[in-house]
Amino acid sequence: MAFAERECAPMSEALSPARDDVVTPGARRRFVASTVIDAVGSGLWMPFALLFLVHGRGLGLVESGAALTVGGFIGLASVPLVGTAADRIGFVRVLVAGNVIRCACFLCYPFVSSAWQVIVLAAVISIGDRLFWTANAPLVTALTSGRDAEKLMGTQTIARFTGAGIGAAAAAVLPAIAGAAMYNLLALANAASFALAAVLLFGVPVPGAPSAPPDPTAKPVKGSWLLLLRNRPYVAFCATHVLYALASVSKFAVLPLVVFDVLRGPQWLPGAAVAVSTVIIVTSQRPITAWFARRNRSTGMVTASILFAVSFATLATLTALPMSLATVAILAFSVLASGAEAIFAPITTATAAAAAPPHMGGRASGLFQLSWGVAQVAAPVLLTGLLSQGNVVLWSTLGILAALTIPAVLRLRASLPPGTLS
Hints:
Low-confidence stretches: 1-22, 208-220
Structural class: mainly alpha
Number of helices: 16
Radius of gyration: 22 Å
Largest sheet: none
């Protein structure tokens, strides 16, 4: 089905399924290269954000963290406007705008000296991120055919985790050997990566342009947020995805607190769990995506649900185990949860693109991306509140929430457009 169809004159870049006579292999390669560069740069910066502000710019740890959080929340509020803009001006332009905005912000990072400046930059960068992720999935769908969309999204996941892994490793070493100039150089290098990603996108044509002139008597079909929210199956899918996103966000968010404060375990264990996760994602994402591409999407989503539920159940037993077995359980959890991540992330993103109502591709993608934002905002309060009630309560609740996605997916299989979850 078309992800976004031409709705009126300003939508000169509206998308429909890709055709080989319109989109050349070279154009696809430029798009892939652009998004991989973006993903690596974004992943690489995540471990450096606080390090840059504290060690590179001399700001306080608490004020830096608070400024990044406030800025991120402000940027999250842009989702409705971003979704509308994507439908009106086209996904390619939105993706280019996201890269240009983030390039400009990272050029400014070496000059920040106060928390309010960090809030402004973090908010604008968050808007740039929303622009990227809102436009990315529709473009992937338009530039690929069949289940190839999931394979390309899997490649992007590998790039993001590779960047995060490199960043985490470098962040552990640089504070001892790097001065402020090195941190500033990293910010400028990130700006350059976004600039390069934007330049590459200029060579990507808009696929699926109609071969016949439009009917002058036909009325333009317009989408709206109200119409989208009335589409109950799609809204239900996004609500279900909140639970998947919560599982993804939660898998390592409170693990260090559990290891240090509950188990009194070794300092190296949380880092080792993250390292195992990174290796699993980078090495297994492609074969996992290829294997599930030959099966129903609902099968992949249910499998991810089971793996998340079992992995959380494994951690619920930690306080009853000796430290040696608890260590094994944590590493086993890292393997299971990472496998679930590798399965569900490409599949759910491709499903959201395929299930989007016609003429509202940008708004639909924005709503889907908002489901990630809701999970990220809710996670700190939910997880700390559950942990205050005990380790068993924390992980058992997360396991139950993960298991609830199974009946939800089975119900959605019948209510979403035909073939969406096949």
